[in-house]
Amino acid sequence: MRYLTAGESHGPQLTTILEGVPAGLTLLAEHINTELARRQKGYGRGRRMQIEKDEVNILSGVRHGKTLGSPITLVVENRDWKHWTKIMAIEPVEEEEVKRKVSRPRPGHADLNGAIKYGHRDMRNVLERSSARETTVRVAAGAVAKRILAELGIQVVGHVLEIGGVRAQHLSYSSLEELQRVTEESPVRCFDQEAAVKMMEAIDEAKKNGDSIGGIVEVIVEGVPVGVGSYVHYDRKLDAKIAAAIVSINAFKGVEFGIGFEAARRPGSEVHDEIIWNDTEGFKRRTNRAGGFEGGMTTGMPIIVRGVMKPIPTLYKPLQSVDIDTKEPFAASIERSDSCAVPAASVVAEAVVAWEIASAIVDQFGQDRMDVIKENVENMRRYAREF
Ligand SMILES: Cc1cc2nc3c(=O)[nH]c(=O)nc-3n(C[C@H](O)[C@H](O)[C@H](O)COP(=O)(O)O)c2cc1C
């Protein structure tokens, strides 16, 4: 499976075309809209999230609530477009009509490198596409992937572990359902209620200071059979694909699986997961420090992946930069931005991880038809149990 996205932040719409989604998958607009709404929530988001309620239009590839196997086109309109028809006009406009030209690059954003790379003197041409508004349709694509996984009994849950240095401490959930239920109710998508309060205080503080803060999100996937992905070639390693997907999210700068970077500090005997066996489940690991991967393949244990999001670059608090027209230094001051988007980013992380896993499963277990894929996955689960 693969997908492309297109669309500018203040253009008429965002579009994604998904290719290779198997036939026979139940897919309704509401499955996607639920995920779009989750992305728009979260303490610390700015005004745009309140103006625009994202809704998907499914324009191809689905008939009577089932996928056809043909490309699926998903469109999300930008409701704000009506205020941008001149600024973002497709047809040429007079030079003096171009308002909100951007000549002041923000440190930490794509503005300056993008302008130099593509030869743009108006950096709106860069920021309209480098903006995380694009993650809207990545979440839409992820919603389709989640539908595939749900039909195969695979659960994906994302949550927030850390914001602005405040770390969740009490993570004593007994199931992924509980983790999901609790974090869904939390304005910062955090399981630990005490930490959540402190995270919101940290966001308030950052906002008051005209600053922004980042954090760490975690995605857990349960129910993936053993052996998805492969050790035989670098571009078939599923952990590598997931790592790339996480770092491809705007503002994500690092990724780890299981105990992650902590593995550098421990001896091997405290890193590797001992292998055990019983006649009902077959082979298992006593622990899951590897986070569900060995040799680029799933171990059958839960996949645990974390991503680090840096603070949002658009700040009210001035950071020095240089105007590309006048070459004069200036202190950036900006009208509107979020102070923290980590909770929303955890929804994006879920989406991109779900896509990579669904894509690997479809590739490995049958490609064309959901019913065949389901049967093949079941066979693999049985085979692994009896191995
Ligand atoms: C959900 C989400 C929302 C974001 N919102 C903003 C924002 O409001 N303002 C901003 O400057 N950056 C925001 N970002 C981050 C920028 O898009 C990102 O830093 C920028 O594209 C530069 O790319 P890089 O940080 O990956 O190098 C957001 C990122 C995510 C994932």
Automatic annotation (TrEMBL):
Gene3D superfamilies from the entry? Chorismate synthase AroC
Write out the catalysed reaction: 5-O-(1-carboxyvinyl)-3-phosphoshikimate = chorismate + phosphate
Give the record's pathway.
Answer: Metabolic intermediate biosynthesis; chorismate biosynthesis; chorismate from D-erythrose 4-phosphate and phosphoenolpyruvate: step 7/7
**Entry's cofactor comment:** Reduced FMN (FMNH(2)).
Supply one GO BP term: chorismate biosynthetic process
Q: Which domain of life is it from?
A: Bacteria
**Coiled coil (residue ranges):** none
Q: Which NCBIfam families match?
A: aroC, PRK05382.1
Belongs to which family?
A: Belongs to the chorismate synthase family.
Note the subunit structure. Homotetramer.
Q: What is this protein called?
A: Chorismate synthase
Question: From which organism does this entry originate?
Answer: Thermaerobacillus caldiproteolyticus
State the organism's lineage: Bacteria, Bacillati, Bacillota, Bacilli, Bacillales
